Amino acid sequence: MAFPSLKHKAAIEVLGLAPTPTRAKALTRRRLAAALHRCGRRNDPTLVDQLLTALRADGLAQPPAVEAALGTAAAQLIAVAKTMSTGVNELEAALRAAFTEHPQAAIVASAPGLGPVLAARVLAEIGDDPTRFPTAAALRCYAGTAPVTKASGRSRYVKARRVRNKRLGDACHWWAFATLTRSPAARTHYDARRAAGDHHNAALRNLANKLLGKLWWCLTHGLEWDETTAWPDHPRGALSTAA
Fold first, then answer.
1. Cβ atoms of 109 and 119 closer than 8 Å
2. Is the separation of the CB atoms in 145 and 208 below 8 Å?
3. What is the C-alpha to C-alpha distance for residues 225 and 61, in angstroms, rounded to an integer?
């Protein structure tokens, strides 16, 4: 396949130029390079050659009339996808503008792994009332990152919390995932949980639980995130290097 992911902007752009196999085989190097450039892809001759080879490869053919009809349907679907992509970009731009105007935006966005869109999701679900959650534990339970422990006699097991704000829980999941490449201390905590036997999602949930408690402290005290304060047991040299 020329495009492993049809969601990619380059795939939509190129398929818009060549919605049928016949038009794909007639696509010139110059038009293909221009389409990739419009998507923000650098001029890479290797990529152009790779795509041209895939687009010109022999495959199952349909009668001309059938191919033309399918091509028309594909072109209309591609046009809808482009319109939706433009709408998403405009919504994200409006979201960023509105988020930056919020008085607590700087605090939330200061946490590693929280870009404007994800930070806005977290803030929207937590709310901007600093007294809404009297303790970090209350916020963690609300998000569902805090585990539920059940014990009876000698049996004891821990499981994920089912009753929760699923939107906040989902945002915290992706926040924890993003911190793995943006915070060495968060990565160390995740790796330790994995080494202890947690599977990937459980380790991320545990990390999200830690992060959410630290964010609650920042919002309660009106202070921006500081890696040294958030992870006091992590080597200071690694924290300063990451910052």
1. yes
2. yes
3. 59
Residue closest to 171 by CA, chosen among 117, 112, 134, 131: 117
**Residue 150: pLDDT over 70:** no
DSSP string of 71-119, one letter each residue:
HHHHHHHHHHHHHHHHHHHHHHHHHHHHHHTSTTHHHHHTSTT--HHHH
The DSSP output letter for 231 is -
Helix, strand, or coil (residue 22): helix
Give the residue-averaged pLDDT of 11-30. Answer: 89
Residue 143, classed as helix, strand or coil, is helix
User: What residue spans of the chain are helical by DSSP H?
Assistant: 9-17, 21-25, 29-38, 45-55, 64-100, 105-109, 116-126, 136-143, 166-179, 184-195, 200-221, 227-230, 236-242
205-208 contacts at long range (C-beta below 8 A, 24 or more positions apart):
205/145, 205/147, 205/160, 205/173, 205/176, 206/145, 206/147, 207/176, 207/179, 208/143, 208/145, 208/169, 208/172, 208/173, 208/175, 208/176
pTM: 0.74
**Where do we find the tokens 């805090």?**
146
- pLDDT for residue 66: 94
